[in-house]
Amino acid sequence: VVSVTSRHHRISKMSLTNAPSERWKEMRSLMTPAFKSSAMKCMIALIENCVETFVEVIAAQQKETSALEMRHLFQKLSMDIITRSAFGTETGIQRSQGDSAADTLLSSVQDRLAEYRRGWLMYFANCFPEFHFLWKFLFSRDMNPVMVPTDYIKNNLASIIEERRANKNAAREDLLQLMLNAEEEADCPIDVHQLTVPHEEEVVAQASHENIPVIRKRRFMTTMEIQSNAVMFLVAG
C-alpha cells in the first residue's frame, strides 16, 4: 500500500515500490546482488565498526555531561550505517559537531518526513484520492513549484550520486554502485526471473538450468530510478 503522493510524484513513482510488474521484475533483479550472503557478511564488519565508533562517542560525551540525548546519537548511528552500507560513503557523522553534509542530510530527512504528517497538501491528497488527476498534475510536472519531502531528500543525495559517477575507478559493491553499473551497462542481458538470492554454499546442478527459460532484456536503470530508489532505501532505514 502506497500513498497517493508516492504513486504520482515524478520521483517516487519510479521506485521499486511503485514500479509496474515487468519493470519491477527487472529492477529487483538488478538489486538482488546487493543482498547476497557474501554482501551481508561484509556488512557485519561494517556495522561493528559503526557501533565501535558509537560507543567511543558515548564514552567521550559522558566525560563532559552526565545526561545524554540518546535518540540523537542513535539517529546518527543509523545514518552512518545506511550511508556506508547502501551508498559506500563514510560521512563521519557520528563524530561531527552538526556542521557536516551528512548532518544536513539527516536534518533534511527528519524535517521533510515530518511534513508527511503535518503538511496540508499530503493530508488532502491521501484523504481524497478521487481527485487523482489534480494530484498527478501537481506532483508530476518537471518544473514543479510544489516541493514534497522526496524532493528535498533527493537534492541532498544528488551530490553523493554525482561523486560516485565521477570516481568510477574505485571498486565498490554497495547498492548504489549496482544501480549505477546498471545505468551504464545498458547492453548486458539479464534473467528477469532470477528474483531470489541463493546461498553461495548451495550447489545447483547445471542440468536444472537447461529447462528454465531465460528472457533477455536490456539491463539499465534511469537516473530518475536511481535517485528514487536511493531515497527509498534512505527513508526506509
TrEMBL record:
The keyword Iron applies. This is Putative cytochrome. Belongs to the cytochrome P450 family. Its cofactor is heme. Keywords: Endoplasmic reticulum, Heme, Iron, Membrane, Metal-binding, Microsome, Monooxygenase, Oxidoreductase. Pfam families: p450. One of its GO terms (cellular component) is endoplasmic reticulum membrane. The keyword Cytoplasm does not apply. It is a peripheral membrane protein. InterPro entries: Cyt_P450, Cyt_P450_E_grp-II, Cyt_P450_sf, Insect_CytP450_Detox. One of its GO terms (molecular function) is monooxygenase activity. The lineage of its organism: Eukaryota, Metazoa, Ecdysozoa, Arthropoda, Chelicerata. It is found in: Endoplasmic reticulum membrane; Microsome membrane. Gene3D superfamilies: Cytochrome P450. Its main location: endoplasmic reticulum.
